[in-house]
Amino acid sequence: MTSIRALPTLTAPVEDYLKVIFELEAGDGVAGTNEIAAELGVAPASVSGMVRRLAEHGLITHERYRGVHLTKAGRRAALRTIRRHRVIEAYLTRALGYPWDLVHDEAERLEHAASDELIDRMAAAIGEPTTDPHGAPIPTREGTLDEPELLPLAAVEVGVRVRVQRVGDRDAEQLRYLAELGITPGRQIEVLSRAPFEGPISLRIGRVTKTIGPGLAKQILVAVR
Ligand SMILES: [Zn+2]
Q: What is the CA(178)–ligand 1 centre distance, in A?
């Protein structure tokens, strides 16, 4: 297997586009110009130009009404950036003692600057972690990604005990709140009750009972035991 280290150097904006397209495709499968623009916080018109360039470079295919899809080369490039991002987050927490709510923004910047050599050494220094601090799987240096199937906590039935696997990593305030509640990857929780019509969900976390809203419950991904 060839390493993702053999890929050409790409600019930071190109890497950001490929990463966003990868995430949209992994989500509901459609990465249209509008969705990409919303994710990147830019105007749809500026996305069109970049999409054309990415297609010319063989990183994506673009069909008019069917959105954008990563090619094999585009997927490998996206996975390289995602690996850098998640290794940096893991290194900052494990080696440098960063709290989990402060690493995402650092990783967003550093993921474009770090060499693959540095990333591999960082990963080795902390024992080759398989997930980042938020529970997201880290792609291997060969460019494979093992994404387990997870369920949002919002969809878990009452009375079921589950283990937290992954939480959303973009909102620092939300991460601080989750830490306060004790909702971190690896933690076991039980759904005690759920009000109808997307109402509050009460949880047993360790020995305490906490109530969260359905919006937050969608950001918490679990594995059913
Ligand atoms: Zn992150």
A: 15
Ligand 1 center to 52 CA (angstroms): 27
The CATH number of 151-224, from 2.30.30.90, 3.40.50.720, 2.60.120.1130, 3.30.565.10, is 2.30.30.90
Output 93-98 pairs: Cβ under 8 A, ≥24 positions apart: 93/133, 94/126, 94/129, 94/133, 95/122, 95/125, 95/126
Q: Read off the pLDDT of residues 155-191 as tens digits, 9 standing for 90 and up.
A: 999 999 999 999 998 899 999 999 999 999 999 999 9
Residues 57-108: tens digit of each pLDDT: 999 998 877 889 999 999 999 999 999 999 999 999 999 999 999 999 999 9
For residue 222, what are the β-bridge partners?
151, 164
How many angstroms separate the alpha carbon of residue 104 from the centre of ligand 1?
Answer: 4
CATH number of 1-147, picked from 1.10.620.20, 3.65.10.10, 1.10.10.10, 1.25.40.340: 1.10.10.10
CA of 64 to the centre of ligand 1 (A): 31
- Residue 145: helix, strand or coil by DSSP? coil
Q: How far is the centre of ligand 1, averaged over its atoms, from the C-alpha of 196 (Å)?
A: 32
Q: Tell whether pTM > 0.85.
A: yes
* Residues forming CATH 2.30.30.90 domain(s) in the chain: 151-224
Looking at residues 8-35, what average pLDDT do you find? 88
205 with 194: CB under 8 angstroms?
A: no
